Amino acid sequence: MSPKIEGKNGEHEAVLETAKLMLAAARTAPKTGGIDDVVTLIVYGEEKDAIAEKMYEIAEQRKIEGFKRDANNLKDSEAVVLIGVRGKKSAGLNCGACGHRNCEEFEKAQRKMGQDFTGPTCIFKVLDLGIALGSAVKIASLLNVDNRIMYRVGTAALKLNLISEATVAMGIPLSAKGKNIYFDRR
Fold it and tell me: Stretch 123-133: mean pLDDT, rounded?
């Protein structure tokens, strides 16, 4: 008898393979000055559910239903791709978008954790994060794996120190179901 891969097992493996390809897309996405400060991670199973639990906790603390709604989506997902950026380094452009007169002043600035992210963060590093996120979700889309960039997932992952090098992070839950769970929601 030849080996078989049942639907659910095959779909789970397809989601994980897609997640790996998303990491490659994020890594090879263009970066300011060619300097790569993007950090990535794939989380599934109990660790993924721990992020959702942290999101429920934040929802309760802040009285924000969006954290609960997104936590429900994450619990129902196969995996999540986390993409963040090390925003403490400057791009060296002295643009002032960080709130400092120049990059030297920015790099000497005291870093502090805000409600969700650490700042100040270099705007060009955040732009690099956006490009990496776009490249990653493009791959998932091309492979017909449902996904959605979620700020709240990144917040919870940072609070759990899962992607601790990052000053800002986002999560991209992944699902392969008969209906896209991320866009048909309350």
Answer: 98
Determine the structural domain holding residue 113 and report its residue range: 7-175
Distance in angstroms (rounded) separating the CA atoms of residues 159 and 145: 27
Category of 15 on φ-ψ map: left (φ > 0), alpha (ψ -120 to 50) or beta: alpha
Tens of pLDDT, residues 159-177? 999 998 999 999 999 999 9
Q: How confident is the model at residue 158 (pLDDT cuts 50, 70, 90)?
A: very high
Query: From edge to edge, which strands make up the β-sheet containing 38-44?
Result: 38-44, 79-85, 168-175, 146-147
Q: b/e for 57-75, b at 16 or more Cβ within 10 A? A: ebbeeeeeeebbbbbbbbe
Which CATH number does the domain housing residue 87 bear? 3.40.109.10
CA torsion sign for 36, 135, 73, 115 is: positive
